[in-house]
Amino acid sequence: MTDFPKHVRAVAPASIGNLGPGLDVLGCAVTGAGDAVMAEWCDAPGVVVRDPGHPELPADPALHASAIAATAVLRQALGGGMRPPASGIALTVRKELPLSAGQGGSAASAVAGAVATNALCGSPLPTEALLDACLVAESTVAGRHLDNLAPSLLGGICLVRSMDPIDVVRLSVPEGLYIVLAHPAQRLRTAEARAVLPGMIDRATALHQAAQVGAIVAALASGDLALLGRAIDDRIAEPARAPLIPGFREAKAAALTAGALGASISGAGPTTFALAGELACAQAVAAAMEAAFASRAITSSVRVCEVDRVGARVEVDP
Amino acid sequence: MTDFPKHVRAVAPASIGNLGPGLDVLGCAVTGAGDAVMAEWCDAPGVVVRDPGHPELPADPALHASAIAATAVLRQALGGGMRPPASGIALTVRKELPLSAGQGGSAASAVAGAVATNALCGSPLPTEALLDACLVAESTVAGRHLDNLAPSLLGGICLVRSMDPIDVVRLSVPEGLYIVLAHPAQRLRTAEARAVLPGMIDRATALHQAAQVGAIVAALASGDLALLGRAIDDRIAEPARAPLIPGFREAKAAALTAGALGASISGAGPTTFALAGELACAQAVAAAMEAAFASRAITSSVRVCEVDRVGARVEVDP
Question: pLDDT digit string (tens) for B178-187?
Answer without folding.
Answer: 999 999 998 8
